Amino acid sequence: MTARRDTSGQRLFQRIVDYVQDGVASGALRPGDRLPSERELVERFGIGRASVREGLRVLENMDLIRSSPRDPRGPLVLPVSVEPMRRSVALLTSGGGMELAELVQFRMIADASANLLAASRRTDDQLVALERNMARMRACMNRGYAEFSRADLEFHELIAEAGGNRVVQVYGDVIREAILDLITRTVLDADDQTALMLQSLRHHRDVFTAISDRDGLAASRLARQSLYAYYAEYVSPADRAIMADLVRECGGTVSD
């Protein structure tokens, strides 16, 4: 069944989607607010109930609202979530729309920035949290690479949180998860895993020391050097050259 359109060719349910997206973006709709009931939306936008319900389904898939058909209070506006972006990146990665080299190059930029910011802004409590995380990573080595990797991701999430820049935090988290999923499915084998876990632990200790010493430049350089060392062999020579330039940009060195 083809969705109905208005005279401009726009699908009718898009009116509801635009109304909510614009309201959230402008602050007119805030988390915890309620949308009008289905009947009121039908009257306000001059469209059928089926189009209203389709618009609400789209908004639910975007994690912008939660709707219960028999709730007389109307759909609930939710806090803005990164889940739609995470799903989009995961789909692009699994479908071949994003290559490993693109993800790693972006992560080199994001992680270097997160480390630099954390070195400047970290608190003593955040250093303690990082130390506890590294202890958990060591304990996870005997439990397999999947569990170790979750602790590894948490280390970088803690650094991004300490850096205090939410844009760096959100995009960095999404890209790191996409890389982990891609690597797990395509390039890791049993012989790689123990060596990679040990390499990761050594790197995290060096990063921790730089952040503890408030040496942002060193922490930034370590991020790029480590990512190059991890992933250079899995990308094309042209992409490897770009990654090497990113390392040199912050004063690091790469081995041939």
TrEMBL record:
Pfam family, one: GntR
Keyword annotations: DNA-binding, Transcription, Transcription regulation
Gene3D superfamilies tied to this protein: GntR ligand-binding domain-like, Winged helix-like DNA-binding domain superfamily/Winged helix DNA-binding domain
HTH gntR-type domain sequence ranges: 10-80
GO molecular function annotations of the record: DNA binding; DNA-binding transcription factor activity
Signal peptide boundaries: none
InterPro entries per UniProt: GntR_C, TF_FadR/GntR_C, Tscrpt_reg_HTH_GntR, WH-like_DNA-bd_sf, WH_DNA-bd_sf
Superkingdom of origin: Bacteria
CDD domains in UniProt: WHTH_GntR (cd07377)
Protein name: DNA-binding FadR family transcriptional regulator
